[in-house]
Write a structure and sequence with these properties.
By secondary structure, this protein is an alpha+beta fold. It has one domain. It is built from 6 helices and 12 strands. The protein has a 4-stranded antiparallel beta sheet, covered by helices on one side. It is globular, with a radius of gyration of 23 Å.
């Protein structure tokens, strides 16, 4: 074979490789993004499970779940349940620094916001600012979080009662006595920012506001799309609630029956 012929074959092979790469890269990038997000979401689920374990340990220690918030002498909410379970997350060092008789945004307590445990952050929650929690309770007399008093875990329907939800971009400081109201959450996962559980997570090449708390990617026509709400249930298990869940079903998942206690 002549040198000229060898060069021609080499040039053709090089062009073939370029053509294959041009075809493969757009196809592979969504899969690579999905793989990266899948790793992050596995961590998100693990963090939510750790929150559940801490809540169960608190329940075993005190006979009830923590109150949704701590109140001062005037009955005003000052601190979140996320502060109360710090010892159950093995963060006594941080708990000992919190002034429990001061509001979350007092000059002293506010300095602790940046020390939020990693457990309270979903690694895929890129929209959250420093000190903002990815995990919130759903508060209301119909739920496991009635307010300033702690409620015992139900004796039945443990696997069908939501305890905590993952809410990316919640805007809630981890020490702040604020969570999601039942009146909003009960309208369902697939609702707007002012009427339900909402998040903003990476999708494709940028950030996309999604109607629902997101827990995983599923294949779509182009890349991957968001699929549902990542929720912690009273039995300590986590489950993705579909984005198509009806308000009626969501209400039943959040509501507790006083007769169950």
């Amino acid at each position: 074979m002549s040198i000229k012929c060898s060069r021609k074959i080499g040039w053709l092979l090089a062009m073939l490789c370029v053509a294959l790469l041009a075809f493969a890269i757009p196809t592979l990038l969504p899969a690579l993004r999905h793989g990266s997000q899948a790793v992050k979401w596995a961590s998100c689920t693990r963090h939510l499970t750790q929150v559940g374990l801490a809540l169960h340990n608190y329940h075993q220690q005190y006979g009830s779940l923590p109150p949704a918030y701590v109140v001062d002498k005037a009955g005003r909410p000052i601190l979140s349940w996320r502060v109360l379970i710090l010892p159950n997350l093995l963060r006594d060092d941080l708990y000992s620094q919190v002034r429990l008789d001061e509001p979350w945004n007092s000059p002293h307590n506010l300095r602790l916001a940046a020390l939020m445990p990693d457990t309270y952050r979903c690694p895929a929650d890129t929209s959250a600012r420093e000190g903002e929690a990815s995990y919130v309770a759903v508060v209301g007399p119909q739920t496991l979080w009635p307010g300033a008093t702690g409620r015992r875990l139900p004796t039945m329907r443990m696997s069908r009662t939501i305890l905590v939800v993952e809410a990316a971009g919640s805007g809630i400081s981890w020490m702040e006595p604020r969570d999601l109201a039942f009146s909003a959450a009960a309208k369902g996962v697939a609702r707007g920012a002012r009427s339900g559980i909402v998040c903003c997570h990476p999708c494709g090449g940028g950030a996309e506001m999604v109607r629902g708390v997101y827990s995983g990617y599923m294949p779509a026509v182009v890349g991957y799309r968001l699929s549902g709400a990542n929720c912690l249930f009273a039995n300590g298990g986590t489950l993705t609630v579909s984005e198509t869940v009806s308000p009626q079903v969501m209400t039943e998942l959040l509501r507790v029956d006083p007769g169950e206690f």
